[in-house]
Amino acid sequence: MDTASCIDVSTVNSHVRNEEEKQKGAFWGLVVGLLTGLIRLITEFAYGTGSCVTPSNCPKIICGVHYLYFAIILFCVSTLVIVGVSLLTKPIPDVHLHRLCWALWNSTEERIDLNAEEKWQEEIDIVEEDLPVQSRGCLKKAYDVFCGFQKSGPKLTKEEEEALRKKLTDTSEMPFWRNVVNISAILLLTVAVFVFAYFA
């Protein structure tokens, strides 16, 4: 949904809340970044790299920029597109974003899907259809079990449903494992930066 697009842009614009980085902003940021990178890639392949004897005819504005500077430019352009499109589109109500963004990460309120009404209507349509029950083959049954498409299950009481919902919406972390993950991430980033700097 919007998980990938929940970016904290408080440093860019102090009145923009991080849950306002919307799906459309993330999508268009990805599209613009992809197209910009493809333009450079295709241009370099089309004109070739050239040599000291026969330089390439590739336009300097595209191929004359060092690839690391181009990566910085690409990052800035994508960020501007994400923030710009997000500011120009209507914010998503908080009821749809609980536990999807940093600002609402520890919220215990129930999240309502954006397309909950459509799903409800689809379920009604399926129930209204009086199709004869067809026996499914072993392969299809195995596929359903493997992919978790089983329709039958134990009926839960109200208390069990509430306990299950509370467990599924719990975002608390054990301090020990949180520290292990954080230290591992720092070590991994340190090694990656060292290897990149050493072999660049």
Automatic annotation (TrEMBL):
What residue intervals traverse the membrane? 27-47, 67-89, 176-199
State any GO CC term: plasma membrane
A Gene Ontology molecular function term of the record: D-glucose:sodium symporter activity
Q: Domain of life of the organism in this record?
A: Eukaryota
This protein's UniProt keywords:
Membrane, Transmembrane, Transmembrane helix
Q: Has keyword Isomerase?
A: no
Entry's InterPro entries?
A: Na/Glc_symporter_sf
Q: What is this protein called?
A: Low affinity sodium-glucose cotransporter
